[in-house]
Design goal:
The complex is a heterodimer of chains A (about 220) and B (about 210). Chain A has about 220 residues and is α+β, with helices and mostly antiparallel strands. Chain A folds into two domains: about 30-120, Cyclin A, domain 1 (Orthogonal Bundle), CATH 1.10.472; about 140-220, Roll (SH3 type barrels). Helices cover about 35% and strands about 15% of the residues of chain A. Chain A has helices at about 30-40, 50-55, 60-65, 70-80, 90-95, 110-120, 175-180, 195-200; strands at about 140, 160-170, 185-195, 205-215, 215-220. Chain A has a five-stranded antiparallel β-sheet. Chain B is mostly helical and about 210 residues long. Chain B has two domains: about 5-50; about 50-205, Nitrile Hydratase, Chain A, CATH 3.90.330. In chain B, about 50% of the residues lie in helices and about 10% in strands. In chain B, the strands form two sheets. Chain B has a two-stranded parallel sheet. In chain B, strands 2-3 form a two-stranded parallel sheet. The longest helix of chain B is centred in the first third of the chain and has 27 residues, at about 5-30. Classes of the chains: A alpha+beta (about 220), B mainly alpha (about 210). Chains A and B meet through helix 1, helix 2, helix 4, helix 5 and helix 6 of A and helix 1, helix 2, helix 7, helix 8 and helix 9 of B. Strand 4 (about 205-215) of chain A pairs parallel with strand 3 (about 155-160) of chain B, so a sheet runs across the interface.
């Protein structure tokens, strides 16, 4: 979706405000928010693209006015409601100090956290799919504006670049975010000349590299 | 560089947010969906065990050991795992090398993708609208705000982390460090140099070390 999260090339956002000696977290609730989300991910009822879409699929004004972990909170609540882990009534009751009954055992216990974190979760798929493009080939990003999740940023759509690296075969975010359909395909690093994206006033030398899936690209004759 | 208005605004909303997060944690805990001890362990990992020191060791080793540099170029994920750094948000690593001709810089315009296994969690500015909007469109202006001025002859190459590849910038080794040990070198490699918004420099007190 063309949401507020897709920020590349937007103007009017101000200067970069880099905090000196910044702490990892700025409040206790940020620690708990990150951890709640990762612990609930262990249920495997959603994947990373569904989680991203849950954060993106909010009114633009809300996305921009909330802090990073506030967006996590709203994304988490919407996923937990959607997947039936909790209900609105339970949230309201918990806020009023009420209690809930135990219905399950957590899939992620303290002893599992370290090995699970060190293992990670690969989005690469071990199947044989032919690449549509070769290194050195010119491509254009298809000018498409899906309402759902996508990882083709607006600022490259319709623009031509060159395939510089084939990263291998990965799940396709646009379908993966809907129902987990993997639609495995090649992902490439595509080089765009800065002037192709931003016009003649920028450096003729500079470039932007964007990782893009086969389905986002068409040949650029 | 902090903005008082912005921080006041955040703190006034903090209590409502804090209540919501607390309510969510207690609800999920009572239902048996999460284990609070597991949450403590997750926080401990990201706050204390994983951070830019990991990346600094990778960079220093690459500067000292040509074989290691070759392995990084060939398969960065495996070469980084040799030092014990692997897993979530570092499953597929790529190291991009700065040279006098090319300066690399990483961003995630869509959210916050970042090489967590080697740099830890990203700083707030990396996830902020100004960096995400401007890094791809006017990287030289952003670099100038970080105090980095590059020659017009140098190509600025910005990597937008739109897929599941995670990028680590291998900065240039500063002059005057030819005799330094790997450990000495790792101490001068700071986070921003591995994002590409900084350069590695020799601090004054280290001169002649």
């Amino acid at each position: 979706m063309n949401g507020a999260h897709d920020m590349g090339g937007m103007q009017g956002m101000g200067l970069v405000d880099a905090e000196v000696d910044e702490p990892v977290f700025h409040a206790e609730w940020e620690r708990r928010m990150l951890a709640i989300f990762l612990a609930m991910a262990a249920w495997r009822r959603w994947n990373i693209d569904m989680a991203r879409f849950a954060r993106e699929n909010v009114p633009a004004v809300d996305y921009l006015s909330r802090s990073y972990y506030e967006n996590w909170l709203h994304g988490a609540e919407s996923l937990l409601l959607e997947k039936g882990f909790i209900s609105r009534e339970e949230i309201e009751a918990a806020r009023a100090g009420g209690h809930a009954e135990k219905i399950a055992d957590p899939p992620l216990t303290a002893d599992m956290v370290s090995p699970v974190t060190a293992r990670g979760s690969s989005a690469r798929v071990d199947v044989d799919v032919a690449p549509k493009f070769r290194i050195g080939e010119s491509v254009r990003v298809i000018n498409r504006h899906p309402r759902g999740h996508t990882r083709a940023p607006r600022y490259v759509r319709g623009h031509a670049g060159e395939i510089v690296r084939d990263h291998g075969i990965f799940v396709f975010p646009d379908t993966h975010a809907v129902d987990g359909t993997q639609k495995p395909q090649h992902v490439y690093a595509v080089r765009f000349a800065a002037a192709e994206l931003w016009g003649d006033e920028v450096s003729q030398r500079d470039s932007v590299m964007v990782d893009l899936w086969d389905d986002y690209l068409e040949p650029a004759p | 560089m902090s903005d008082d208005h912005h921080h006041n605004h955040e703190s006034s909303e903090l209590s409502e947010t804090e209540l919501r997060v607390r309510a969510l944690e207690s609800l999920l805990t009572e239902k048996g969906l999460i284990d609070p001890a597991a949450l403590d362990e997750i926080v401990e990992i990201y706050e204390s065990r994983i951070g830019p020191r990991n990346g600094s060791r990778v960079v220093a080793k690459a500067w000292i050991d040509p074989d290691y540099l070759n392995r990084l170029r060939h398969d960065a994920t495996a070469a980084i795992a040799e030092l014990g750094y692997s897993g979530r948000q570092g499953e597929h690593m790529i190291v991009v090398e700065n040279t006098p001709e090319v300066h690399n810089m990483i961003v995630c315009t869509l959210c916050s993708c970042y090489p967590i296994t080697v740099l830890g969690l990203p700083p707030v500015w990396y996830k902020s609208a100004p960096y995400r909007s401007r890094a791809v469109a006017e990287p030289r202006a952003v670099l100038a705000e970080f105090g980095v001025a590059l020659s017009d002859e140098t190509e600025v190459r910005v990597w937008d982390s739109t897929a599941e590849l995670r990028y680590l910038v291998l900065p240039m080794r500063p002059k005057g460090t030819e005799d330094w040990s790997e450990e000495q070198l790792s101490k001068i490699v700071e986070r921003d140099a591995m994002i590409g918004t900084g350069l590695v420099t020799v601090p004054d007190e280290s001169a002649g070390q």
